[in-house]
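stage 2 :: seqdesign
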């Protein structure tokens, strides 16, 4: 007995039987990928799925508890003559299969290792959730019975006739949106209104409900095509509760098109819901149903475009593209290939050959990994801006910034850890000093370029055309339009009457003052005859006050005659939209359009209402509306390039001749985004377009007399700023976007 033990101890480890064998309860199917059959193994206990390479599967079948590593290697060489495999490679394959949980052992003490592995996986998931607080996945339940009841009711939606009809309906909604895009955009609320209270709570609930429908779409499609779904749970997506549905069992389906349909089923349900919501919103009056429909359309459309349909994130679009290209684990392979490429070109580190990595299309894998990383940064940045903007009215914007900082720190820590693993990995060849020197030189040069080299760039400002030396005519006193004597485009002379207003209150007051003045005129004489000098002086002062007030009223009555201050051509002012106030009645009929329009006869004009403008000549100026943040970048006599929207092929040159002293509060309607203009505005109670950010006016004189220009034309002006580095440009934009205090 002692001799047998000694002999077995002297046997090489490669010749000892491997005490492992394949589990008999595994579900194995062969699925073709690019016309090559690959075994896909389902673990029914852990609900895990693995696609094995032919070498891995052959090793799995050879493990019977009796063969040694050398025996398995010899069998692999017989089956794959072109494969160069060593006993160490076989040991790595066996270890990988054992870590996947596909093998079992007849030896004692294996249970504790399995428990340790389960604990490690559990803590790994917790760490991943903490490192990504915007995407937290909670444990779920088995929805199999629920899906079995729902599939007969909704499974018909995945039949070809139903799919054609429903997608035609969705395409009709998109066509409707494209045709009436301007009308739809004008009806959209402002950001602060849409994401303000109480609509924010409705939006939050809508997101949760739409995503529940989305996930049930995956589950129903999975059941319809014969796969199983045993995991559904709660997920916090940007702090909004929703569901997730694990349809990994679709990997057991041989048809890749069925797998793609299952991946698209959630978006399929959401696009149908969004199409219905669009028509409901457009055809209903403002109210709860109208707001909820807009919420549904926004949530279903935006989340589908930014998250689900995009293959750069590991959501539906990614798995659909992976199935379409027939490349499982696309992102992990692309990320690994990017790391190998980076380490080779920058450090000279040659990674060991991985037999399971793709041998073709390396450039596309690297580009996909780079694009995926950049898009993840973009999504994180967009979510940060969204949270900052939504929380800012409640003075909680710092929470959004701190959350973004936490996410950035976790990403940075992950990059440092990966770099450390790369540098500490054992290797035979040393790091290339030449490549490290070249990489360092390029990095230092790019840093210097970003920080110290001025980079000219342009800024833009909206403008509209206005006659030179134009005189604006305003109503000096309020009144009703009684008569309109000129029309826009008419020639007038200085002092010519343009319109007549009527103010019954002033007329009554003038009559009353006339009577009062006549009556008061007798009092001084009466007190003089009574020899009362004090009473006489008091009566004379009252008479003077009445006379002064009477003169002032007469001047106001005279101001009801609107006259031209200079000779020239009458130019209509900015048009005012007609407002309809539900439930509000006023004895004063407000004007709309132009005050000089015939339909405004009898309309009430407030004091300082813009009646018209008088252009003394045919010369024009461009009136720039410059954002407050850009005001210091443009000085007097600086060159400006101007392009009118209606004449996009022409570019005019001009120079700044004057700046306004104070910022503008209201934008010309032509420049408002409500009417296709570039400036963000909010319509106030009087129908005026109030600017969302302060802007300043600047007058630009054309270098040469422009042709084909008319009053009111709009366009975009550009001016070059050449004194900022790339870092300054970025920091300026960052400060404008994230102006906050912790």
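stage 2 :: out
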């Amino acid at each position: 007995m002692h001799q047998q033990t000694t002999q077995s101890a002297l046997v090489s480890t490669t010749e000892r039987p491997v005490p492992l064998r394949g589990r008999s309860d595994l579900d194995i199917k062969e699925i073709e990928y690019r016309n090559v059959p690959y075994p896909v193994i389902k673990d029914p206990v852990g609900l895990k799925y693995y696609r094995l390479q032919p070498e891995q599967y052959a090793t799995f079948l050879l493990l019977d508890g009796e063969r040694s590593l050398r025996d398995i290697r010899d069998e692999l060489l017989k089956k794959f003559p072109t494969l160069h495999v060593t006993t160490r490679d076989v040991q790595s394959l066996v270890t990988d299969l054992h870590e996947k949980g596909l093998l079992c052992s007849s030896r004692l003490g294996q249970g504790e290792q399995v428990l340790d592995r389960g604990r490690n996986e559990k803590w790994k998931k917790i760490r991943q959730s903490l490192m990504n607080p915007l995407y937290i996945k909670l444990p779920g339940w088995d929805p199999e019975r629920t899906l079995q009841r729902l599939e007969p009711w909704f499974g018909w939606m995945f039949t070809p006739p139903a799919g054609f009809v429903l997608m035609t309906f969705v395409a009709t909604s998109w066509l409707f949106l494209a045709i009436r895009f301007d009308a739809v955009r004008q009806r959209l609320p402002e950001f602060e209104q849409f994401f303000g209270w109480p609509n924010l709570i409705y939006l939050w609930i809508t997101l949760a409900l739409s995503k529940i429908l989305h996930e049930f779409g995956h589950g129903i499609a999975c059941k319809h095509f014969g796969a199983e779904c045993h995991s559904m749970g709660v997920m916090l997506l940007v702090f909004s509760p929703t569901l997730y549905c694990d349809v990994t069992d679709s990997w057991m389906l041989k048809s890749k098109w069925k797998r793609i349909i299952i991946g698209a089923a959630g978006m399929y349900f959401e696009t149908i819901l969004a199409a219905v919501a669009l028509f409901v919103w457009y055809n209903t009056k403002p109210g709860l149903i109208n707001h909820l429909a807009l919420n549904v359309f926004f949530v279903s459309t935006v989340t589908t475009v930014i998250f689900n349909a995009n293959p750069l994130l590991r959501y539906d679009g990614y798995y659909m593209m992976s199935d379409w290209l027939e490349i499982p684990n696309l992102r992990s392979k692309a990320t690994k290939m990017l790391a190998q490429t980076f380490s080779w070109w920058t450090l000279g580190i040659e990674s060991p050959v991985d037999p399971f990595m793709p041998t073709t299309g390396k450039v596309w894998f690297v580009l996909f990994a780079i694009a995926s990383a950049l898009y993840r940064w973009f999504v994180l940045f967009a979510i940060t801006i969204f949270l900052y903007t939504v929380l800012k009215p409640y003075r909680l914007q710092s929470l959004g910034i701190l959350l973004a900082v936490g996410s950035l720190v976790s990403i940075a820590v992950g990059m440092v850890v990966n770099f450390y693993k790369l540098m500490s990995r054992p290797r035979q060849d040393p790091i290339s000093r030449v490549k490290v020197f070249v990489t360092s030189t390029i990095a230092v040069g790019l840093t210097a370029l970003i920080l110290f080299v001025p980079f000219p760039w342009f800024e833009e400002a909206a403008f509209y055309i206005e006659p030179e030396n134009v005189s604006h005519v305003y109503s000096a006193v309020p009144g009703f339009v009684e008569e309109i004597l000129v029309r826009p485009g008419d020639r007038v002379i200085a002092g010519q009457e343009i319109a007549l207003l009527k103010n019954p209150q002033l007329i009554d007051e003038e009559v009353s003052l006339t009577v009062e003045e006549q009556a008061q005129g007798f009092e001084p004489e009466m007190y003089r005859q009574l020899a009362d000098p004090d009473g006489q002086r008091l009566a004379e002062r009252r008479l003077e006050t009445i006379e002064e007030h009477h003169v002032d009223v007469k001047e106001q009555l005279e101001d009801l005659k609107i006259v031209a201050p200079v000779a020239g051509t009458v130019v209509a002012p900015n048009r005012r939209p007609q407002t309809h106030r539900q439930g509000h009645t006023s004895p004063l009929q407000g004007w709309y359009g132009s005050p000089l329009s015939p339909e405004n006869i009898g309309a009430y004009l407030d004091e300082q209402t813009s009646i018209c403008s008088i252009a003394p000549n045919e010369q024009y100026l461009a009136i720039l509306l410059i954002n407050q943040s850009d005001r210091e970048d443009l000085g007097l006599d600086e060159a400006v390039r101007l392009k009118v929207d209606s004449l996009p092929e022409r570019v005019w040159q001009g120079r700044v001749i004057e700046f306004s002293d104070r910022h503008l509060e209201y934008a010309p309607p032509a420049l408002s985004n409500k009417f296709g203009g570039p400036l963000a505005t909010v319509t106030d109670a009087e129908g005026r377009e109030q600017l969302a950010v302060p802007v300043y006016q600047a007058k630009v004189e054309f270098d040469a007399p422009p042709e084909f220009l008319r009053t009111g034309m709009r366009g975009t002006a550009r001016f070059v700023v050449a004194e900022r580095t790339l870092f300054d440009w970025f920091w300026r934009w960052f400060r404008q976007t994230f102006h906050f205090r912790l």
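stage 3 :: structure notes
- Residues 459-468+617-737 form a domain with the Elongation Factor Tu (Ef-tu); domain 3 fold (CATH 2.40.30.170).
- The chain has 21 helices and 24 strands.
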